[in-house]
């Protein structure tokens, strides 16, 4: 394994967004939906999470080509009680379905104080924080749960049967913007193993075990083996219960029946559950944001441990990364650039302009 592959070029975020949108339109995705999907990936790159960024564009394109994921997203309402809705995504694009859930969830929360939108028969939606941040921007607290294809074994087991089953919570935070978490219930999101494998990097021991159950720093061996849960048995039981919310309750797939975005041929069957709370139903938004500022101020003012320069609140690192990368461009490695080049050739789309990193040809 080599050391971390350095970025050999940077691309402006707007150019990368335009490229992704055009590639998706050439794959029969309606323009508005293509922009949303591409934007969700570029935003992950801006936040410093390339494992969920443009790296994934070729995976989505391949699933669209095979029909495993429908290019035209046309959900139907299965249940509507007012504050609760169930949408059948009919194998549509996960980002488009979840964005629809945010819109509906916000509308219903404003009407009822709290809402729940369940989505069944969906697809991978990228970073959950992309959507809960939208809830927070609308003056709400958003909690989003999704299930995923098997990645870990139940505690004490040897066969993967439970997904990473990520979840996110976001809340408006006054002058601090948004406080947000976005977590997989494994030691690391599975996308980071795929990212390391593509770049020829070693992974830290403790992330995964190989097919024989031995700790490994080889990402491909980890992909073929098991990703370990975060916090031992606690990560396993949280992932299990997230599957109850996102899969069992929504009427979608669950357990080892869910198919991930890495499989180009089979429908995903994954499910999501979005819960939205209108802050104004409990207090004024001004008062809530003031209290959030007090909490964050106090948290950041805690005495720092040796070697720590600053304490961050949840979501602050991503916000700073986005500000920096918006100005400087998104770093792209050779492996990712090669995949984008292949997509450009396949779809007749011009590659975005890239600026070589200093010291490279």
Query: How many beta-strand elements?
Result: 15
Helix content: 25-40%
Number of helices: 11
Q: Which ranges are low-confidence, i.e. pLDDT below 50, for 5 or more consecutive residues?
A: none
The H/E string reads EHHHEEHEHEEEEEHEEHEHEHHEHE
Q: Write down the overall mean pLDDT.
A: 94
- Specify the biggest β-sheet: 7 strands, mixed
Helix/strand-derived class?
alpha+beta
How far is the first residue's CA from the last residue's CA?
Answer: 24 Å
Describe this structure in words.
With about 350 residues, the chain is of the alpha+beta class. It has eleven helices and 15 strands. The protein has helices at about 15-25, 30-45, 55-65, 95-110, 130-135, 190-200, 220-225, 235-250, 285-300, 315-330, 335-345, and strands at about 10, 75-80, 85-90, 115-120, 140-145, 150, 160-165, 165-170, 180-185, 210, 215, 225, 270-280, 330, 355. The strands form four sheets. It has a seven-stranded mixed β-sheet with strand order 2-3-4-13-5-8-9, sandwiched between helices. Strands 14-1-15 form a three-stranded antiparallel β-sheet. A hairpin with a 5-residue loop joins strand 8 and strand 9. Helix 4 packs parallel to helix 5.
């Amino acid at each position: 394994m080599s050391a971390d592959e350095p970025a050999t070029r940077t691309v402006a975020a707007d150019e990368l967004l335009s490229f992704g949108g055009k590639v998706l339109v050439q794959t029969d995705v309606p323009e508005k939906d293509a922009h949303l999907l591409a934007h969700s990936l570029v935003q992950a790159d801006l936040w410093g999470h390339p494992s969920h960024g443009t790296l994934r564009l070729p995976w989505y394109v391949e699933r669209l080509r095979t029909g495993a994921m429908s290019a035209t997203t046309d959900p139907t309402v299965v249940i509507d009680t007012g504050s609760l809705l169930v949408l059948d995504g009919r194998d549509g694009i996960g980002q488009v379905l979840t964005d629809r859930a945010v819109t509906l969830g916000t509308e219903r929360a404003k009407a009822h104080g709290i809402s729940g939108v369940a989505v069944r028969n969906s697809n991978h939606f990228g970073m959950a924080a992309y959507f809960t941040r939208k809830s927070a921007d609308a003056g709400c607290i958003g909690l989003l749960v999704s299930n995923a294809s098997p990645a870990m074994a139940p505690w004490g087991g040897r066969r993967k049967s439970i997904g990473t089953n990520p979840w996110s919570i976001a809340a408006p935070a006054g002058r601090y913007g948004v406080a947000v978490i976005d977590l997989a219930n494994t030691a690391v999101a599975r996308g980071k193993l795929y990212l390391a494998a593509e770049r020829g990097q070693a992974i830290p021991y403790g992330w995964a075990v190989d097919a024989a159950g031995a700790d490994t720093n080889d990402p491909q061996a980890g992909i073929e083996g098991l990703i370990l849960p975060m916090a031992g048995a606690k990560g396993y039981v949280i992932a299990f219960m997230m599957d109850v919310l996102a899969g069992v309750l929504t009427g979608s797939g669950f357990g080892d029946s869910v198919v991930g975005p890495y499989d180009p041929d089979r429908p995903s069957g994954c499910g999501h559950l979005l819960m939205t709370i209108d802050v104004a139903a409990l207090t004024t938004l001004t008062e809530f944001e003031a209290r959030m500022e007090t909490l964050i101020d106090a948290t950041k003012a805690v005495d720092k441990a040796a070697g720590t320069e600053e304490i961050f609140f949840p979501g602050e690192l991503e916000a700073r990364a986005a500000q920096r990368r918006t100005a400087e461009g998104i770093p792209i490695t050779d492996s990712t650039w090669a995949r984008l080049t292949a997509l450009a050739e396949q779809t007749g789309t011009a590659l975005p302009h890239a600026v070589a990193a200093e010291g490279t040809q």
